[in-house]
Every structure is written in C-alpha cells, then in structure tokens.
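Protein in question kept in full:
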Amino acid sequence: MVNLATETHRCGSWPSPISADLVAAGGVRVEALAVRGDDVWWQETRPLEHGRSVLVSALAGDRLPSPWSARSRVHEYGGGSWWFGREHAYFVEAEDQAVYRIPVAPSAEADPTPERVSAPAPTGTGWRFADGREHADGSLIVCVREAHRSEPGDHEEPPNDLVAIGVDRGSPKQPQVLVAGPDFVSDPRISPDGTSLSWIQWNHPNMPWNETELRVAPLLRDGGNDSVSLGPSTTVASGVSISGPAWTADGRLVYGSDVNGFWNLHWWRPDGVGGSLTGLTGAEIGAPAWVFGTQRWVELPDGRLAAVVTRDAVDTLSVIEADGTVRPVPGFGSADGFGPDTPVAIGSISAAGPSASASVCVVAATPTGLPEVARVDVDSGSFTVIRPAAPIGVESAWLSVPESIWFDSDGRPTQAFFYRPTAGGTAMADPHEKPPLIVIGHGGPTAHNSPELSLKIQYWTSRGFAVVDVNYGGSTGFGKLYRDRLHQSWGEIDVDDCINAALHLAAEGLVDGDRLAIRGSSSGGLTVLAALIRSDRFAAGVSLYGVADLKALAADTHKFESRYLDWLIGPYPEEIERYESRSPVNDATAITTPMLLMQGTEDRVVPPSQSEAVVAALAANGVDHVYVTFDGESHGFRRAESIVSSLELELWFYGQVFGFTPADPVTAPDTAVGRGFGLDEALDNR
C-alpha cells in the first residue's frame, strides 16, 4: 500500500501506486475491431505474454491458442493482420508470416489448430502478408504480399504486390499476382457484387499521407482453372492523400481525401459519377496510414455512415447523414464513461451488424480509462460495454487529467497536452518546490499525441513530475497546413516547438525551469538529441531507439520509410549537406547534458548502430550517460520485462540528475553500460 501520510517528499520521490509492473500489465493494446453477426472480435497485444497478439471473441474468449500470434510485418509496422470471411477468420502468423484461418464459430469437435492458407514461398524468398479480404463467394482472398529475399547482404527492396489466394478447397494455394509495379499497395477492397477491386497505390518518395492514387479494376474470374486477374483499371483520385476506401452496399466507393486541406469523405460510382460527401474544416476524418487497416468510418445498415472525427487531436464519434451533414453522437455516454465533455481517443470502429441498425462498436479510451470495447447507439449516445477497460486498481485521484494548451512557438500557434503532478489527493509536495518537467515529443513524426489514459505518463505524474505531450508542427489531427509545417524542416520545427513548450510552462511558473528533461522515441529521439544540441535549458535527455544519423537512416532503414526523409529533409544525396547538418551524431560532441539511451537489439527501423554512434560521442566527450539494450525487442518494447526495466531505469536516471531518491528500489539491467552518477555502484548492486 502507498503511504498516504501528509509528510512531504521531493518531487520524483513520491511513493506511488502506479508501479512499472502495473504499467506493463496495463499496456495491452486493443485494436482491429470487427463484428460478425452477434459476435464482436478484436485483437489484443499482451506484454505479459511476451507481446503475443491474440484474437478475442466477445462470446467465446481467446480464439488463438498459445503460442499462435496474429502479427503482420509488412512495412515492418504491420497492421491488417486479421480479417473476417463468411465462415472463417483469417490471420497472419507472427512467426512465419503465412496466412492461416480458423472457423468463426468455435466447435468442441473441430481441430483447434489453425489451417494454413498460403503456400510456402520459394527457396530464398520470404513472403509477408497483410490487409486481406475474402470474396463474397468464399472462394478466394485478396491481400497485400511483401516478398523478401533471404540471401545475406541482399539490399534489394522487397516488391509489394496485391495477390489472390484460392481458399475454397485443397491444400494451401500459390498466390496469383493481381497488381505489381507500384512501390506500395494497400487497402484491397472487393465490391459487394464481387466484380470490382479497389486499392491504393503510391511510389517513392511519397508516403501514404503525402500523395497516393486510388484505383478500381474489374475482377475477372476463370472458374475452369481457378485463375484470377484484373481488367483495365480506372483512376478514381490521385495527387492527394487517400485514406480508408471501402464499398457501400449500394455500390459506391467511399474514401477519405485531403484535397481541401482536411481529410474528408468523398464517393465514386463505377459509372464515373462521384463527389464530395463531407466538407469539414478544422476537423478531419482520416489518420496517417502507418499500419494497414486504418479505417475511420463505417456504413450503418440504414445507409448512413458513422465516422471518427478528429479535431485538435481529440476524437468525436459522429454520424454522416445522406446529405453529408456531420452530426456528433449526442453525449456519447455518461459522466461515468465517455461523457459529453470527456476527451476521447477512438482507435477502431466497426458497424454493429444488421440487428443493431443504429449502432457501431468502437475501441475507445478516455483520460482516466484504458481502452474498452463498447456498442454505441449513434442516435441516442447510449452505450453497452462489451470488453471493459482493464482495471488498474488505482483511485482516480491519482490520475492526472490532461489540459489542452496552446502556446506561441516562434510565431506558430502550437498545441500540447499538459499533465500536472497528482498525488491521490494528499499534500505530497513541498509547497515551495516547483515540479520538474518531462517534455515528450511523439514518434512518427507524422502522428499525434491524444488525451487518452497513458499509464506511462501517470507513472511520472504520480511521482511528482509534470509532463507536457507536445503536438509539434507536423502533427496530424490539425489539418494539412499544420501537418506540412514539418516539410523539409524535421529536426528544426519539432525541436523548437518542444523547447518552446518547456519555456512556456517555466515562464508561467508551472514547472521548475532548472529541472527540465526531454524524452522521445524513434523520430522523437532525434528531437531529443537535436534539442540537447540547440538548447542548454534541459538538464536531462532520454532517447529510446532514436534517430541520430540521417544519412545512415536513409541508407539502412526499411523500404517503407526509405524515402520518407525526402519529404522531411530533402532529396538525398542532392541535399547531403542538410542531412549532415541535421544529424545529431555529427554534433553530438556539443551535447553536455546527461543522457539515457535505450535500444532494441532487433530494431530494423532504427538500427542499434544509431544509438551506438551517439554513445561513442558521449563517451569521447566525457558526458555522463547510460546505454541499455533489450534483447529480442524491435522498434518499440512489447515485452513486460522490457517495459518494467526501461521505466525503472529512467526513474533512477532522473533521480541521479535531479538529486532525489526514488521511493521504489531500481535494479539496473545486465546490458547497462556508461559512465557517471554512480552507475558503477548501481551495476555492482544488480
């Protein structure tokens, strides 16, 4: 039990009920929601099961026995790793990346072992699949395939194709290529009558949130020899960012486009007629497609649409009437749940089925509640919880509720979520002490922070830290102009915005300006490193698998992001001087701030060499630092033991820098190396 006595403690040393173990246990990702009949399925990624991703049925519980795990690695980030057919649920197995299926209806007599659908790849090649759909007659699936060569030293980019796989009878079938040639393909969707296929495609150097093309082609079948092909294709839209295309029951193709500066819905029919469906400004229906299956709208049985509308990084569930009117769902719950004034983050949406004509199912979270699955009546706003939020066993008084703030950043209005330190209603802090601040720059960088409950943030606020989660220029959820602030300005705009967020809060007297820390992961790690080079206001920096060498990243990263830097920095090698000047590793000797760096050993997105280069520079410059690697982790820590160890080590690190002793003992991991602030003693006590 946490001691709730009223004696004061140094900020950072508050005893807290939110332990690192609790953070890891509450780190279950709930996503990829879909409804079949009266049943609702979703996907859970569980740190306590070594990051295994399980398909879960509301009626039957877990549908994938251990050690089966549904996780695609197409584009490395995956997504779209499972989908429904008429009688089966298909999924991509994490280990071999092949497509398997299980019956939708469980049976005590049936073999619980998943049935393989895709044939093995040829020798020397590894196939990965994602984002599939079954044909209406159940005879085939269409999905994305990424083909990797397995020869050592082979750096050829893997081709991405759309393929059809027969599933109606016999042994696993060889894929038949339908679309080949574009650098990337996604969102294959079969029309309700089975005669047409739509998809998104794009080429280097574009990313899916920059410029893509939406195409449709006749889906041709030859039943005699089971062959499948496409007829001549039609371009529905191009030159804009397309998101979430899907067919409606009346044969329209509805899709998101940012042609007017915000992701809005448009429609198209095979006769060539189409137009704009919504005309939102200041809000949008869409999200950056870092993973497959990013869907922000669904069709209701009565023909209306339900959509997730994002305004200033906060989501609202809305209904789109036949005339395009966008109407927020009234209330969307009660004061005990979502509530009309409660910021919401909606991660997944699905129509609730014909028996619930005015309902949708969502995965949603609030600032004080972890994700839960709920069925929502879009006309009344009433809801039924299907999968309750995981209990965290902590009174709400311990939870810091984010405040949306806007501040001036060199003339640019910039948004962030500010979290005050919160101690369960007790007078834990010395009234004369202002809290230290942790500045967080999100990864991506084309992404945004939302106000949903983050136990990682609460881990800090419940110990006496203030936190500011910055949606720097370039973040999504604010429209294209805000998103385009980062065009060829990565490593500058994001850095200045994070610095200015800290200075703003210090000037307002809300935090201790002498105890500012900045942390970030992936692209946010570059923001950390660059901020430490450009500003002397931070007393501590934490980089988790952060980008340090832009030239090396351009040469070594995976295909999906290999030309991302063309937009963020400039074309390479034409702008090589810009790459060199913005690579923190080239100016790492200017870093005099103590640092903690953490890295997964199997990271293919930002390889360990990036962190190692910074560590070498810090060591050569005599800067106190700690470097920790986590075996078996890739880009992002999924295992409970890694999450626990990384949090506890970071708390210990802040204690060394800011001069406090954590209330809980910390054990340094075996892979920790570095110099300074008692590290040798900490390592000796492992």
Observations:
- Residues 31-171 form a domain with the Neuraminidase fold (CATH 2.120.10.30).
- The chain is about 15% helix and 35% strand.
- Confidence is low (pLDDT under 50) at residues 333-337.
